[in-house]
Amino acid sequence: MKNFTRSDVTDTNRIYCDKSELIDAPLWWQLQGLQKTASGYGAKIETTYKINFEGKKHRIYCTVYGNVGSCWFMTRGERIYVS
Fold it and tell me: What is the pLDDT of residue 61?
């Protein structure tokens, strides 16, 4: 598990990481095979992953509409995308 810092963030507010660098931390309803919404779409869907950024663990969210989603987390009021 890597501790990401501000220097890992690109000028487009994006962090590039490998799945092995994330923390697998599913919520109770994800362990039961449930979804956040009936359709699976939404603006702030919790994923099963967290990222260690500047010494704190942040939940990764995904905005999903259609066939594609954008993963991100919030830190100090700033949205940072995860790729």
Answer: 98
**DSSP string across 6-65:** GGGS-TTSEE---GGGSEE---HHHHTT--SSSSS-EEEEEEEEEEEETTEEEEEEEEEE
Contact (Cβ atoms closer than 8 angstroms) between residue 1 and residue 21:
yes
Query: Burial letters for 31-54: b for 16+ Cβ neighbours within 10 Å, e otherwise?
Result: eeeeebeeeeebeebebebbbbbe
Residues 68, 58: Cα–Cα separation, whole Å: 22
- Number of neighbouring beta carbons within 10 Å of residue 67: 5
pLDDT at 42 over 90: yes
| Pairing of β 3-4 and β 56-65 | unpaired
Q: Structure pTM?
A: 0.93
Alpha-carbon span 34 to 53, nearest angstrom = 28
